[in-house]
Amino acid sequence: MKKITVVGGGNVGATAAQRIVEKQLAQEVVLVDIIEGVPQGKALDMWESAPVEGFDSTVIGSNDYAATVNSDIVVITAGLARKPGMSRDDLLAANAKIVKSVTEQVVAQSPNAILIVVSNPLDVMAYVAKKVSGFAKNRVIGMAGILDSARFRLFIAQELKVSVRDVQAMVLGGHGDSMVPLVRYSTVSGIPISELLPADRIESLVTRARNGGIEIVNYLKTGSAYYAPSSSAVEMVDAIAKNSNRVLPCSAWLEGEYGLNGVYCGVPVKLNENGIEQIIELKLTDEEIAGLKKSADDVASNIKKLDV
After folding, report:
1. Are residues 157 and 17 in the same domain?
2. How many alpha carbons lie under 13 Å from residue 280 in its C-beta half-sphere?
3. How far is residue 74's CA from residue 6's CA, in Å, rounded to a whole number?
4. 121 prior amide bond cis, ω within 30
5. Which member of 29, 88, 217, 243 has the greatest number of CB atoms within 10 A?
6. Are 14 and 69 contained in the same domain?
């Protein structure tokens, strides 16, 4: 992979850029932000770690999208972060304007890029990026399910006192309070968690996963999560850059899958150099389908509030 751009030099963007260069996923990594000096300073600081960390990627910081020309992947993290008392939906109008502007400038420089959207409210911002870019649906992907699943996996591992490496989980739906953790597909080395934990403990872990973001916001007071979100975005970058056909839960544009149409929603997808190669349709129970539909309806109602 020749070039990856990260838009937004805040905590999520800068940490994502750091992880990308340390994994050497691209020859050149560009960090873009509107604040003069911030991307330049962070990029130089990051690049100066190269002799210690042992990566040969170039790291550039810029306020000008000209520096991003011909990017293969663009990770969009720009936007306002949540504060205590704010829902993701409170960010809707402000971040829609930001993501619209960012997408226009990104597309002008990199018409063949794959876009990974991290800005909140996630599924709605992915829609904004798709609509503004005019890109095919496989090239505009939202990061949510990996993060939600990672939180659920950690909580399961903590509860059972097992390695996180042996825990697999799948969280579908919109990134927010209506996400749908699939307990049936959550396992420890292939053993369903329903055989290892009582139903009430599983339900408490599901609830904690749903509230994973706000739990951190309430601790930080003036910011929101960024270590796990950046890791989750970079797992997508890794799958695309290495053309590895990873099966990961991502926010994808649905056109009939799972009975949903014209909405971004978290579902399992196969990711490779084309972006979303395939949306994988699981056989869901009536209850799971209802949860997914409610989650998608929440996203659709917010999309209707937009003026893009």
Report:
1. no
2. 13
3. 6
4. yes
5. 29
6. yes
Q: Which H or E run includes 50?
A: helix 50-53
Overall pTM surpassing 0.90 (yes/no)? yes
**pLDDT tens-digit map of 160-200:** 999 999 999 999 998 777 889 999 999 999 999 999 999 99
Strands 171-172 and 167-168: unpaired
Query: What is the extent of the structural domain holding 226?
Result: 145-304
Number of folded domains that form the chain: 2
Residues catalogued as catalytic: 175
Residues 140 and 115: beta-carbon distance below 8 Å: yes
Burial class of residue 220 (count of CB atoms within 10 Å of its CB; 0-12, 13-18, 19+): middle
Question: Are both 107 and 165 inside the same structural domain?
Answer: no
Give 194-221 pLDDT, tens digit per residue.
999 999 999 999 999 999 999 999 999 8
Residue 188 is inside which H or E element, if any? strand 187-188
Element at 251 (helix H, strand E): strand 246-255
Q: How far, in Å, CA of 109 to CA of 95, rounded? A: 21
